[in-house]
Design brief:
Oligomer: single chain
Distance between the termini: 59 Å
Mean pLDDT: 82
Structural class: alpha+beta
Number of strands: 3
Order of helices and strands: HEHHEE
Low-confidence stretches: none
Radius of gyration: 23 Å
Helix content: 25-40%
Length: 80
């Protein structure tokens, strides 16, 4: 008769508090925001905000942002 071994127990993760667990769960389940501020959009492009503004003024980056209640937002899809 073949010898059976107990299943291997995976390496334990460090203990996580309930708040950290919910933060992790929210990050995994929530889709990323589709409309971004110019600061977030610049960070996504890995450029500074002033460089982003300059590139946008010269037309090197497009399309134009969306205006919502006197605030400009950029679509995440435009960065890819």
């Amino acid at each position: 008769m073949a010898e059976t071994h107990p299943p291997e127990i995976p390496e334990q993760l460090p203990p996580v508090g309930l708040d950290e667990f919910f933060d992790l769960l929210r990050d995994r389940l929530a889709p990323p925001a589709e409309l971004l501020t110019r600061e977030t959009f610049a960070a996504l492009l890995d450029v500074g905000v002033s460089t982003f503004d300059r590139l946008r003024e010269t037309g090197a980056i497009g399309p134009r942002p969306i205006k919502l209640a006197d605030r400009e937002r950029h679509q995440r899809g435009d960065a890819v």
